[in-house]
Amino acid sequence: MDSTVLLGARPAIRLRVTMLGRMDVRALTGESLLPRSRKTRALLAILALEAPGLVSRQRIAELLWSRRGEEQARGSLRQALHELQEALGPEAKALIVATRETVALNDEGVWTDARALPALARDRPEALDLLKSELLADLDGLDAAFDSWLADQRRRIRDIALDAASARLAAAATPESRAQEARRVLAIDPAQEPVWRVLIRAEAERGDRGAAFAAWEECRRVFAERFRGAPSPETAALAESLRGEVAVPPPAPPPRNAARGARLGVMPLRFLGGDPDPEVSLGLAGEITAALARFRWLTLVDSTSIEAATRQEGGGEALDLDFSLSGTVQRAGDRVRVTLRLTDHRSPESVVWAERFDRDANDLLALQDEIAAEVVARIDPEILLIEANRAAVRAPVQATAYDLLLRAIPAIYRLDRQSYELAGSMLAEATRLEPDYAPAFAWYAYWHLFLVGQGWATAGSEVLARSEELASRAVALDPSDAQALAVLGHVRAFLHHRVEEAVTLYERALALNPNLPMAWVFSALALSYKGEHAEALRRWERYKRLAPLHPHAFFFDSARLVPLLMLRRFEDVDADARQVTALHSGFTFPYKLWLSALGHLGRREQASEVRARLVALEPDFDLVKARQRSPLQTPTDLDFYLLGLRKAGLT
């Protein structure tokens, strides 16, 4: 059915805009008014979906011409507006409202399917069926920023359709209607395995066992082809029960919030040789447990609980640990040696981390503090990496927000555009699935930081506002989450250049978790942005002592380049930049500081090579963009950074 027939033609309507499927624009007479240029069509689509709101010219330029300079982008927008007005003909004057800074569409005279149909979807099945069509199916690939915006709009339409279809299914009272509405849900989201069971059961209740088995086979095919997995044993058991005509009661719905972290047990440390020293072994185990408890995503089982459980038959298995930290303590005179290992108990069980610590035994409290701090800073990212790798190979069906978060984190750090956009989609879905899950919002804000830092989106008002909104939401959900506070601080410092506010947030984050490497690194950056370069280096060195082999060292180690450059330690910048770019050649941040240092050193040939690598990653990076993006607060530091870039040949 043509979507335009769902609402009758009204005299006030001057324009009908169809965006579900291929874009089409018609006058009331039926005459086609579709603009010739795809970017002009995209301009109309943006205005129609935002109508009657005002859309800034800057935002439109950033969405459609993100790789051009500001003046060139605004010129292209003027040309597109002129083409749009010509395409709309005499109606353009009443429909397009343009000022020097904004553009809007007068929606009193416009009917748009993507705005009208969602309101009808719950009551009109034909409207719901039309919502399944892909929004603006012919406008992919115009610009990376527009593609990202379009993906968000498509998710919004899909979510509306899925909510409407799910509501219709919940209200269905007969097996026939349940089967029909279940198929509507599955047409939108075939990963809804509980709905497959509703469909199978409904067909069986109708007395059509052939249709029930056909639904089961279709479920198996979809899971195999789309998700490279198989339906759960619960669904398989339901299908098998049909063969013996055994009634299977409807299963209890799974809990909405599945486990949101790894379960880690800290075992009692064994004392080797000589007389046992419980003050060292028990004290250290307790200190490690207390330090790990500051990482909000870990569920901790302390050594006392483990010891009590192991004394009971089967008690150890009942703890259901994902990981355990165990080890030994040896004392010889004034020295103590602590050997620790982290074991992953999922099949195949294996030791995934081990380290030895030698310390002076004269100050036992200091010994416990030092070892506990270094241990937790090192095993937290190791566990996160293992969990992410496991999540990546699981079938992506009925994924929780935690599953999606785990899959997104490695994709963020790969920093290739396709993986990065996929990570953004997963994080957006995680925040939708569980709107009370603070880490999903924190990591989605973090995703926006790289989006701007890599030059994949301009630092326009929309991106800035969205990153602030997400990070603030994470902190509001869990004010004691040190990582969420650190991310909010970096949003304020790096994107908004509100460095003093960021410093306050970092101090709170470090008070909550003094063993969080990210907080030390971001704090170091903020202090360097303020001009406190020596203190910045001390804070960075604290991170390095805590986690010398951090999995994300390519990013965290790059932070040292800022104070090194400002302290005129150009040779150190050169040496460190070589190392961090060797760890990850696709991260743009270190190249910019490296290039400035080479400019000050007068190494034109080497600067030319580094500049070529940087421009290959971020083609529109120039002195204007460098000035706009830099969070350096003192004019002297900013001018010094830009002077180095200019000497290195950047224009």
TrEMBL record:
Domain of life from the UniProt record: Bacteria
All residue ranges annotated as the Bacterial transcriptional activator domain in the record: 112-243
SUPFAM superfamilies cross-referenced by the UniProt entry: C-terminal effector domain of the bipartite response regulators, TPR-like
UniProt feature coiled coil, ranges: none
Gene Ontology MF, one: DNA binding
GO BP term (any one): regulation of DNA-templated transcription
Keyword entries, A-Z: DNA-binding
InterPro entries membership: AfsR-DnrI-RedD_regulator, BTAD, Sig_transdc_resp-reg_C-effctor, TPR-like_helical_dom_sf
Name of the featured protein: DNA-binding SARP family transcriptional activator/TolB-like protein
